[in-house]
Amino acid sequence: MRFTKMNGAGNDFILVENLHGELSQQQLSRLARTLCDRRMSIGADGLMAIVPAKANADFGMLFFNCDGTLGEMCGNGARCICRYGYETGLAGETQTVETTAGLVTGARIDAKNYRIRLPDPVGLQYLALDVDGKKVGCMYLELGNPGIPHAVVQYPGLREADERELFEFGRRLRYHPAFPKGANVNFLEKTGENRFYERTWERGVEDFTYACGTGTGASVYALAENRCCGDHVEVEVKGGLLIVDIVREGKKCKDLLLTGPASMVCAGEAFDEAISQ
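-> C-alpha cells emitted (277 positions)
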C-alpha cells in the first residue's frame, strides 16, 4: 500500500488514497492502529484517508486517531491534506474538503504554509471543575457539527511544568465527567501581546502531541471572547508556530482561520506483512 507521511507543526500523519473505496471504514480504522505504531510500524498521531466527496467538494477526508477511533476533523491534518491535494493535482490553490465535522476550505499561502477555515465554534461555557478536591477554572466549546470538544485552561508557568504532573492533570480533565464526549485539553500560557505557548492533551492519542490545530483555534476563540487577547494571535507549540485569525461581522465570529506549515516528509510503500499485523 502506498502512503505519504506529512506533519503540520509536528502533528504527524500517514495519508492514504481511498478514492475508489478499496478499504472499508473498519479496515481503515485497523490500518490506523497498525501503521501509527511508532515502534512496530511507520508511526504517526493519526491516519487520513482521501475519499470521494459526497457533496460539492474537491474530495473527502476521513481522519482516524492512532488508536483507530474516527475523529470529527483535524486542523493540522486538514492543512496537510490541502497541500497533498494541491501537490498531486486533486485540487487547486483554493480547495474544499469534506470532513465528518463539515466542509473545510483551504488556501495555499506559499510552498509550505496553508490556511484553513476551521468549523464554527459553538457552545462556549465557563466551568469550575472539581479535580481531586481542587477547583479548576476552564472554558469548554466545540468546533463543527458533530462538534470537536475542547477544554481550555490557562496555565501560568506552562513551559516549566513537571511533565508527569501535567500529563496526569491532562488525563484527569480529558476524562472529567463534565465532558460527556471527553475533551481535548489545551493548556495555555500567555507569553506576550497576542502570543501564547500551548500544550494539548489529545483524545485518541491519549497523550500530548506537538500541536493541535482545532485546539489552537478553539483556544484563541475562547480567550478572545474572554477579552484575554485580540483577533490575530500567534501560538507557539512544541512543533512550531500557528497563527489564528478571527474574522467578525459585528461582534460575531464569521470565520475562524488557522495558518501554519504543512510539511511533506516522505512517501513509500507499506508491505503486506506490516499491514496484516
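Helices lie at 25-35, 75-87, 163-174, 213-225, 272-275.
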